[in-house]
Specification:
globular, 6-stranded antiparallel beta sheet, two-stranded antiparallel sheet, mainly beta
């Protein structure tokens, strides 16, 4: 996946990489701009503070997470990830349709080797 730039509030930020889930549901971080990748497993979670931004859809902030390298997977220079300062991302309460759902959210991620 090529890198690029994200424009936000008149500022431009280089895209560090991409976060997605593999076919087994494993949280994956592919940081192509710095040649690092990690396959992670959730080891702890706490609810976002009540004062957290609910996000553009108003669904509420997703939990803050501690993720560690998943056993049986090979990562490169990422052994732990924290997701904090979340805004939005919770699913819609009254969703009854089957299929893929996309809900906007923002978060700050901290990566450790």
């Amino acid at each position: 996946m090529p890198s690029g730039y994200l424009a936000q509030g008149g500022l431009h930020f280089e895209v560090l990489g991409h976060h997605y889930f593999d076919s087994a549901g494993t949280p994956t971080f592919n940081l192509t701009a710095v040649d690092k990748y990690g396959f992670m497993a959730k080891t702890a979670a706490v609810s976002a503070p009540a004062t957290a931004n609910p996000g553009p859809a108003g669904t509420g902030a997703v939990p803050w997470l501690d993720l560690n390298q998943k056993s049986g997977y090979v990562s490169k220079n990422i052994s732990q990830v924290y997701r904090v300062e979340t805004a939005g991302g919770n699913q819609y309460v009254n969703c009854s349709a089957a299929g893929v759902m996309s809900i906007q959210y923002a978060a700050e991620y901290w990566f450790y080797d």
